[in-house]
Amino acid sequence: VFVALRICFECSPEKSNFPRKHARNVAAVSSAVRVAGGSRSMDTNQETKITRRKAIKQSALLGSAFLIGGKATSLADDPPPSPATTPWVQPLSFPPSADNFLVPALNPLPIPANHQRYSEFIPTHFYDIPVTEFDFKAHPSLPFSKMWGYGGAYPGVTFSAPYQRRMMVRFRNQLPVSPEGFGNPDIITHVHNGHHASESDGFPADFYGPGFYKDHHYPNILAGNDPKEAKCTLWYHDHRQDFTAQNTYKGLAGFYILFDELDSGNENDPNPNALRLPSGLGQFDIPLVFHDRRFDPNGFLYFDHMTLDGILGDKWLVNGRVQPFFNVQRRKYRFRLLNGGPSRFYEFWLSNSMDFKIIANDGNLLAAPVTVNRVLVSVAERMDIIIDFSQLPATTNTIYLVNRAEQTNGRGPTGDRLPMNEADRLLRFNIQPGTVNDPSQVPAVLRQQPAMDLPVAKQRLWEFDRKNGMWTVNNMLFDESRVDALVKRDTAEIWTLKNKSGGWSHPIHIHMEEYRAISRNGQTPPVHEQGRKDVFRLGPNEEVKIYMKFRDWLGRYPMHCHNTIHEDHAMMIRWDIIP
Amino acid sequence: MMNPNLSRRAALMAAMFGSSAVAIAGEETKARPQRTKLPNLVVRDHTGKEFRFNDDLIAGRCVVMNFMYVKCQGICPDMTTKIKQAYDYLAGADILGKKVWFYTFSLNEDAPEELAAYRQRHEVEVPGWSFFTGSRDAIKQIRWSVGFANPTEEEDADLDAHTGMVRFGNVPLDRWSSCPALGNPKDIARSVVSLFPPNERPVVKELQFTPTRNPAQRS
Asked: ipTM of the assembly?
């Protein structure tokens, strides 16, 4: 019954009673240096050197502290490992469609004066989405935990719409008033890389409690009315100041997917401009959100309040289920990978090291697909990839999607790569026998990138740091009433994002538009980062320079670290767009 | 009905890890999510009176905690000032020392009388805010237990690098978060307010957020 723990004798927890969860990269200290075998050079995709062998899996490491060093662990130490669960016993599932919540009209009516440019983008589609608490089990052998979800689902209901659909979404807060445990029943919803007006963007201080609703105006316009600015894989989540980590951990996140003429969501599209990528949400176009989670010894979802570095789970949830399987045909599939956080970085591989193609980064189609056999995805980043299962030998009937980034605490990956046979297995693909017709394609040209043609009005430097245990941006702590940068609409700027904090990684997210990385550590960014992005991963002491345009909307927006534990502890600034 | 394998495993795990909510086979329906546990170490307040950290100071309360030492030339004076400003925002709400307690812990084994003098000097001799001292090890255990640590033992022991964070929690609801002490003191006060269920929150005009043009509406 009790099989999950392996014991690590190398780590000697008896030597120190320093809390393991706070200690710097414990496993890395004792790991032997070794070059990862079998992987060819992937310079275009090699962002972080993950080359050393992992001593032991993190879950086992945590367990070892309890088994060997009983007296050594303090109350501040890591929580015990989650109960064992049998993998691959439940199918991959998909949240329901947000279309289930379409209504002919909202009652009471939305208030036009509350929204910028309402009369230009009069809503045509109305969604009335309850945000509720419900019982949910991520695995059949776990008990029900209380979860929160948009549309009563975890992950939340999936929005999918063509560009220019004029949406008005009413998020009704129907959460309990006094829930026990983690989570705060105030909410404010943000569409992550939505190009929306400030008052509908989900500013962290705009939260509201149970019994209230807020109308979000999502006209889904193209930034600058430029078709090159179209986006595909977005997501939405709660952004409540100070409680975003807890509330999203409890389930408040979902997909928001847009289609346009090129990326039309129809692999049989007769339009000659259509890319005809693998299509059909839940069929050959598969959104996957990855959540690492921890469960307490009784099997209930557990959130560690008592760390500021970030929190790691030891269970691998994909679309809310622990280690599901997915039956696939021998053809191309599009997978929309979303790292749903709170703090873990993933280096995705297929267990046979086969190649796949990256077609979009952060929900933005690249100029051309990039062929790789791995990709690093930090918190909140998205990576759309194409896997062609027809390339597998007829004898192969199972492969796994795995994570090989070693991470032993919430600060960021160690830089070591797990050997393939110890990689974290996330999702099993059961390859169905026989050949099938595959009308989809992956064209050599995807979407032209928008020009960086506006003159640069200003350059700014943002330094992300930690002082006296406090997360800072330019030595400042977040204050929603203080404007840390004023930018003029219809101008361009270059921002330099610099991680000064030594041992920490910070995935930096900037709301409002998509931005272009022009350099990473003074060098040309890897090719799959040369498109548009909204999350810029800063490893220790890294620096990324980005080109930004500010179009269409006015008002306040945040920039913040998307390790949600850092975000909740004031690693955020407010910047405003003015006419 | 819970899987019996799970309940056996849960019982085993609970026994191994000292879970307070031990699930015994047949009684699994009583199992509840594990709550945050804090150590029950002995500390003394600025009058010299002894307390058990968990039983006397934490259990059943809303708490606001920070760490300092009397001779600190770094962040402590500013931190104390900001927390006092936060305290003042809440002073009219009739919750301090009744529903909410502020605790400040000495990192440097300061004597009770030194803490008393510090309270006087910084004009924080106010109801519901006590200063505590204890052995260096006890305070370290308390500090770690609320999540404040630096990444190596050397950095963690460096008083100049000590934490400027404030931990706040509603123990009956097991709701916790923390915020930096050196930001806008309104945010510390708002954090305290956020511990209460929305319908029980003290309304303090000065703590309202910048209004949005698109306010939430009552359902």
From this structure: 0.88
